[in-house]
Amino acid sequence: MAVARTRSVALVGVAGRTVEVEADVGNGLAGIHLIGLPDTALSEARDRVRSAVVNSHYPWPDARITVSLFPASLPKRGSQFDLAIAVAVLGAAGVVPAERIAEPFFLGELGLDGRIRPIRGVLPSVLGAAQHDGDVMVVVPSGNAAEASLVPEVKVVPVGHLRDLVEWLRKGEIPPTPEAEEPVEPPQSGMSPEVDLTEVVGQPVARRALEVCAAGGHNLWMLGPPGTGKTMLAERLPTLLPGLELDHALEVTAIHSVAGVLPSSAPMMSRPPFVSPHHTATTAAIIGGGSTIVRPGAVSLAHRGVLFMDEAPEFARHVLDALRQPLESGRVTVSRAAGSVTFPARFMLVLAANPCPCARAEDQAESCTCTPTVRRRYLGRLSGPLLDRIDMKVTVVRSSRRELLADRQFVETSKTVAERVLVARERAAKRLAGTPWRLNAEIPSAALHADYRPPAAAMRPMTSCLDSGALTARGLDRVVRVAWTLADLAGKDNPGEDETNAALGFWLGVRS
Ligand SMILES: Nc1ncnc2c1ncn2[C@@H]1O[C@H](COP(=O)(O)OP(=O)(O)O)[C@@H](O)[C@H]1O
Ligand SMILES: [Mg+2]
Ligand SMILES: [Zn+2]
């Protein structure tokens, strides 16, 4: 009887957890038994591993082989354990020295011909392996090498074929780690890099709202007739945002890696994502889901960036209502029969809406024939509890002829606004130093009341709104957060009555 052990990584949401893989070659009826994998994945892995070994011209043990994956409680769906299983079997069979496979982590799917195929979620898997003390070595498919190399202080060994890996393990000569590639900015979905705020004519209120959103990480609703520039404005929000700091870039990249949407040539996501799902999107597409492997949805792909829902009332009601949990907590839990998975989902929500379903108000109000009831019902799809979580609501009106004819050279560029946003964000980050938060929108209610309460005089404008019921407790928190951002933009140490008044105006915003 011979036993060999090695390691791999399982993904729970976007967290990588160590899995011990043990192979035992012994007496008994020839065959391979896998313990600790779900049934379907089990039989598929068994077939792939056996074919890959045989087609790489190594002897497959003519004995009873038992492979166990620990801990059994971890969800181990997917094919990333193939490589570790193959290596453990070859170790137990004496084809490769067992002591050389005990320490490294092996990640990769095997093709029937022995090729090692790229997998989803390499970055979070390598991050998981990196949590172990001492020197960590991770063997990954060559197709994932650039992504794996984003993790500092880990020895990444890319391999393309099982044969190369076995020869390397036999000789004990570790191939050199490839140079980490310079992170290149990937194309951001839905946003062309050339857009600029200068292209938007007029709309001073919406512009200001975008700037405040960008500075504090707030949510925004824009209501207005078709053709007034709502979509244009929303698409220019990313141009006001600073690049992601390294820890956030890794978080965002990990989510996109698990979703399988990371470009292999330029793996690091260094810009905030901009995600703009179509209004026909399903709950699974927005929130996350899938039958076997749970994948992150749009709310998680927009983590640390912008989720733009254009023509918001056209989305299914249950999709809109499902946004409430991530808006409140910054994370989303997807429940499945096999268990639930939690993904990060802290995004700025931008909603755009026409006042009625006909979208015909192109030139005059007369061209729209929708009754007040139809209009009310249309906007009513955006429920009270959802709108309660939108910090700022603005009405976008048609630009006047004077605005359209005004000299464009005085229009501010995205760069100018982005510079003010950055200064405001730095003020907030300095105040929030030592806390887990960097933006005002992230401050939880309890901390807001305990540590970041504006002076009493500044709170005065809110009292009558609270008394009349126009402002909810949740709304009050959102007004205070926006007031802090307005103070940061104004270079003040505390929000005054001007800031809370303006924030209250943004909160009450659209009255339809
Ligand atoms: N404020 C504006 N400034 C410049 N162009 C505008 C403006 N509003 C609308 N447009 C023009 O009209 C088109 C439609 O604008 P869009 O942003 O899609 O409007 P909405 O989303 O409000 O229906 C734009 O592509 C642009 O050419
Ligand atoms: Mg539009
Ligand atoms: Zn209408």
UniProtKB/TrEMBL annotation:
Residues 216-379 form the AAA+ ATPase domain. SUPFAM superfamilies: P-loop containing nucleoside triphosphate hydrolases (SSF52540), Ribosomal protein S5 domain 2-like (SSF54211). One of its GO terms (molecular function) is ATP binding. Pfam families: ChlI, Mg_chelatase, Mg_chelatase_C. Residues 173-192 are annotated as: Disordered. Keywords: ATP-binding, Nucleotide-binding. The keyword ATP-binding applies. Belongs to the Mg-chelatase subunits D/I family. ComM subfamily. NCBIfam families: YifB family Mg chelatase-like AAA ATPase. This is ATP-binding protein.
